[in-house]
Amino acid sequence: MNGWQIICFLLVVFAYIEHNNAATKVLYEFRIREVHSERNETGTLNTSSNKTGEPELIVTGKRTSQLILPGKDLNSSSTVYNELVVYTADDNGYHVKYNISIRPLDLDIRLGGKTLKVIVG
């Protein structure tokens, strides 16, 4: 390949990149996992839905968490606290939906087949 062919190839590539008229472009995306929670968020730039022609920044995300709450005394059972939060921020404002549930902790005290075989020998 000589110099002119390389220059022509690069011009075609740059022209394609500049004229890519995608309606939605992902600016960032991240995921965070911790011991009892997880968070996902995506930031996109949307140019097709806006009538003014200006791009719109849209941030969407989800956060989940789960905690085991111990009982108040020895006779009460522990409970599991689950939280799910879904949010969106755009030109129309910040919208969030919460889903919170508390349920009793069910521990399965049965032994599996492999464990029984190891114990019995």
UniProtKB/TrEMBL annotation:
Q: So which residues are the signal peptide here?
A: 1-22
- Keywords for the protein's UniProt record, in alphabetical order: Signal
User: What name has this protein been given in UniProt?
Assistant: Uncharacterized protein
Q: What is the lineage of its organism?
A: Eukaryota, Metazoa, Ecdysozoa, Arthropoda, Hexapoda
In the UniProt record, the gene name given for this protein reads Dvir\GJ14374
